[in-house]
Amino acid sequence: MKLNRRWLAALVVVPLALAGCTATTPTGTSSDDAAAPAGGDDITIAVVTHGTPGDTFWDVVKSGAEQAAEDLGVTVTYQGDGDPVKQSQLIDSAVATNPDGLIVSMANPEGVQGAVEAAIAAGVPVITINSGLDQSKEFGASTHVGQSEFIAGQGAGEELATAGATNVICVIHEAGNTGLEERCSGAADTLGGTVSNVQVDIANVADAQNTIKSSLLADPSIDGVLTLNPGIAVAANQAIEEAASSAQLATFDVSEDVTQLIIDGKILFAVDQQPYSQGYLPVVFLTLQKRNGDVVGGGQPVYSGPGFVTKDNAEQVAEFAKNGTR
User: Fold this and answer.
1) Distance (Å, rounded) from C-alpha 226 to C-alpha 219?
2) What is the rounded distance in angstroms from the CA atom of residue 153 to the CA atom of residue 181?
3) For the chain, N or C: smaller number of CB within 10 Å?
């Protein structure tokens, strides 16, 4: 599926500037600052993601969920673990509390399938977010809030091709994360050149930087680097400088550092799936389902992206990033 350039330009939009506060929740524990119910119906919604505490992306997701809880007068609990076995255990524990809804990310869909299907069998409405779009309906979730990672990758590949890149390394920072692999596959589909995957570990950014640098030194013909995480993007920028490479850098996801590097001309663009919306919208949907019987999505995804942050709109997005909402 080739993407029309005008279609891509239409995606460069800035979402609602919703205020939120970022808090770090230890792995496997509920948020201490979950919003207290004000609506009188004592609704509780559990969020269990594969995001690790302190990750800038997942802090934004968490902020969105907690702001929605405050706005709607419901309670949200947040837990996260990148190990699918431990994540499944967290899902089981959350379901045991009989919540009014469950929000789950599925970086390893098969790894959490049993827990998700057990939640649905127990009568808990489920919405998936961020990862697992292709399996969401199959597992019984009412909708998925996120982006098609393959389509987003296609957009990135097309943009890199327009910038003149023909030999790109795509840096995967979480082994076994199918969504990251789909991003690289999408980029390979539209680049019209070569895309080679490079595996790093997000838990060790210094090693990731060295791995990217080594790749650039080993093959001077590499003229593009596509990272899939803001922290790895910052490391890749350093690697490019240290390798004295002329490779152009692009990334997925936004942070304050990334927007500044775009403004400085060191990153071409960031593919923005708008994580704040991924936290905020499912809480709204599940609250509507409980209060009014509304089931949003009809089994189809609700897309929060992709949008593209470029030099044209990076300063505006940077203001939101400072608030912890982008």
Assistant:
1) 16
2) 9
3) N
| Helices and strands: H and E segment counts in the chain | 12, 12
Residue-range domain boundaries for the chain: 10-147+275-304, 149-272
Question: What angle do helix axes 230-242 and 205-218 make, rounded to 10 degrees?
Answer: 40
Express each pLDDT in 144-197 by its tens digit.
999 999 999 999 999 999 999 999 999 999 888 888 999 999 999 999 999 999
Span between the terminal Cα atoms of the chain, in Å: 28
Q: Element (H or E) spanning 316, and its range?
A: helix 314-322
Report the CATH number of the 149-272 domain: 3.40.50.2300
- d(CA 300, CA 90) in angstroms, rounded, equals 26
| All residues at 6 or more sequence positions from 187 whose CB lies less than 8 Å from its CB, including other chains | 153, 154, 156, 157, 160, 168, 170, 195, 226
CA 223 to chain centre: 26
Alpha-carbon distance values, 287 to 43, 46, 268, 278, 311 (Å): 7, 12, 39, 15, 37
Closest alpha carbon to 81 in 97, 68, 94, 69: 94
Q: What is the pLDDT of residues 15-33, one digit of tens each?
A: 333 333 333 333 333 444 4
Identify the CATH class of 10-147+275-304: alpha beta
